[in-house]
Specification:
The complex is a heterodimer of chains A (339) and B (404). Chain A has 339 residues and is α/β, with parallel strands linked by helices. Helix content of chain A is 40%, strand content 17%. Chain A has a 5-stranded mixed sheet. In chain A, strands 4-1-5 form a 3-stranded parallel sheet. In chain A, strands 2-3 form a two-stranded antiparallel ribbon. With 404 residues, chain B is mostly helical. Chain B contains 12 helices and 7 strands. The chains are: A alpha/beta (339), B mainly alpha (404). Chain B: Keywords: Amino-acid transport, Cell membrane, Membrane, Transmembrane, Transmembrane helix, Transport.
Chain lengths: 339, 404
Amino acid sequence: MKKTVFFGALTVAGLAAGVAAAGTLDDVKARGKLNCGVTTGLVGFAAPDANGNWDGFDVGVCRAVAAAVLGDPQAVEFVPTTGKTRFTALASGEIDMLARNTTWTFSRDVDLKFEFVGINYYDGQGFMVPKDLGVSSAKELDGATVCIQTGTTTELNLADFFRANGISYEPVPIETNAEAQQQYLAGACDVYTTDASGLAATRAAFEDPAGHVLLPEIISKEPLGPLVRHGDNEWGDVVRWTLNALIAAEELGVTSANIGEMSAAAGNNPEINRLMGTEGNLGEMLGLDADWAVKAISAGGNYGEIFEKNIGENTPVGLARGLNAQWTDGGLLYAPPFR
Amino acid sequence: MTTLTDPPQESFRLSMLLNDTRYRSYTFQFIALVCVIGLVAYLASNLVANLRAAGLNISYEFLGEPAGYDINQRLIEYDSQSSHWRASVVGILNTLLVAFLACVTATILGVFAGVLRLSHNWLIRKLMAIYVEAFRNVPVLIWIIIIFTIMTAVLPSPRAFRGDDAEASMLFDAFAFTNRGVYVPKPILDSGGWIVVITFLLSVIGVFAYRRYATKLLFDTGKLLPMGWPSLAILFVPSLLIFFILGRPIGLEYPELKGFNFAGGINVRGSLIALWFALAIYTGAFIAENVRAGIQAISKGQTEAAASLGLRPGRIMNLVILPQALRVIIPPLISQYLNITKNSSLAIAVGYMDITGTLGGITLNQTGRAIECVLLLMAFYLTISLGISALMNVYNNSIKLKER
């Protein structure tokens, strides 16, 4: 009899776990902490500092969501994931969202049952070679040895690119960026390929950055963005519109410096008012407080501020805005209207 | 005349399942089995239910789809359009290759180190003790990385071989040691080449047959035939004769600098070498201890008795001590072979594309089918381990002390 009760309890617990996955927003509120999956450490995007505080471009998204939902940008539990463990961690509910320069692809969205809520970095795959190799185009790389991080979309693009151009190469699979850097500098591979932002960050760390060139070919589109589990649309909306709020804030000129003033009282721009919660009930529709976006933007500033602070031109990573500029500045960033 | 009848058979009653010692153990085992099956079924149904709730399913269809990635070391035909299944097979063959190489090397190293550790020479004995203690007590992953790092950092890149005044040069114009691996000449078989290869294989069988015959003759008649030079002669003379008679049908393709890399020849990759040597020297240290234990398990009286018959030390070891010691050495040796095979999954540390790198790495990552891939991996390693175990047990039975 006791055993029946025990197994019954187990079954109920199992079912409850299955059902609970549907209401991530309530889970996060009840827990008081957001579980956010990030990389195990990529300077500029997500890395712990000397005091163990996580910092970076992807971390900024996690903090904004935590601020919007819980009112506290520090209420985040960062879960480091590798290329291999990231999707399992998200699918199993170990993390509530994944912000880990992950490329939005059809199969990840459709087949793996994830939902990409937007794009926080537009990237593309490039090649880096030592200057003294005398190569000026990726099409001259016939027979070259190429260092490549395994299990990434770049690996598939690489195979496609060489196949389409009818040239051969030899892949040297490696696990992390640090390992790739060491192999490349030792000459164990002629070429290093990864997302162009990663190449720029890697080259910036070299003793002699001028001795290495990035080839002109960008062979793929790598839209990187945060993702959540498929099927929990309320939670997906929260993460999506928090990201959009950061992007819209930059476009509308709302910064961490002037947000206190702008959110204090309704101004004469209705869209800013709706974003700040001084007009309309957008927060209520999301199941959040009226000032959710204010908290999100206060956490680390708007999109542009997060970008400049972590990976912008004045940081060691030193990336230009490029495609990641606002649509009004000729870039691709375009937040749907807050209305 | 009386007829004998069987005593009346006691009929089986249900209570005997608990009261009769003949049946009781089966009853409890059966109950335990049902519990285990129940638990496994519960876990499986829980998994399936949770997957369904997440909108996922268990499906192996991805194995038939194009893999889309390239693998640098392929023992069979493979390109990026081949299926995930074929990529897995490439990985399996790579695992088996490195495991086989490491097992052979570790055994040779281990036997030498184990025997030498018991040497009367102080220096040799201590050197072997240092080897065993140093390698046994540092994790194998560290050794893999150390060897790999040394290879990439110390050896020149192919670029250094270029130009008239090159920094590096090839050994005998045939071997190139680079930080991408070692390039060695590759044998090219012309039309008659296969005949030479077959002759050589037959010669190997011939050597075994000869040694068997010589042993039998020794046991039957006490007549000792020479072993060393006839074995070598049988091994090489017929193959060489056929080779020259057929007009040298086997040529060599030398590696040459071409474009970015060496082309031609066989490239033994740095990752393979690092993994192979690290596994071999690490496990070799364990095998050395097994061998030492085996030798020390043989009574000193055996050595003394053999010596009193006038046998030389080398012969005592080969003919008296080692055959008896094998009975102690083989069973733990089986576990060491299993360890090598399982430890080869550390290949990813140096980017060697074994089964963990292809199926458990890239395929898992690209398809997101983690459960399916891990189940397949488990099945593979289980099969391999049980296979090695079974083979080695057959060997163990053949050399076991025959008790009559």
